Amino acid sequence: MFTIDPRFRLASVESFDVNSAITSSILQFGDVFSITAESNALAVQQQTANFTEFEKDPFEMMPYYKKKPTHAPVYPVILKRVNLNPTIQVRRVTFNGISTSGVSVVGSVHSATMMSRVRQIRQFDQYPQTAPPLHRKEN
Question: Which domain of life is it from (predicted)?
Fold first, then answer.
């Protein structure tokens, strides 16, 4: 038999409906100390099919993925709680989708870090001379 740490609670969820969960998404039931979700994506759109093999990892070649993000300052919070009921009870949760590095938690999280980086590159044989207008002028 195992024992449950009294600082953390279990979650009792009657219905949890998610249409789609994308890369590095997290579904967490109950309390957790820390969550980290990170996703790097490289999307290359080409006019013609030209598949090449990279000699190196493409994420290592691009400085975009090497930059460390700056965060807002974190101020300490003193939290005192008493869990009168060791179970979190939820009737229904419905999501259309949980995106890249997204988190759905039924419970509490002490520390959470999420980061998603997407770099999109478009390669065309010929670029258009002028871009079409976005809005027509009314006379």
Answer: Bacteria
Q: Give the phi and the psi of residue 93 in degrees, each rounded to 5.
A: -130, 130
Instruction: Calculate ∠ Cα 121-122-127, nearest 5°.
Output: 145
- CA dist 23 and 19 (Å) reads 14
Is the distance from CB of 24 to CB of 39 less than 8 angstroms?
yes
Quote the Cα angle for 56-61-64, to 5°. Answer: 150
This prediction has a pTM of 0.57
Residues 6+ apart with CB under 8 A from 123: 44, 45, 46, 47
Name beta bridge partners: 93. Answer: 16
Q: 42: closest CA among 104, 92, 117?
A: 117
Q: Which parts of the chain sit beneath pLDDT 50?
A: none
* Residue 122, pLDDT score: 76
How far apart CA 71 and CA 134 sit, in angstroms, is 36
pLDDT score of 127: 61
Question: Count of CB atoms within 10 A of residue 24's CB?
Answer: 20
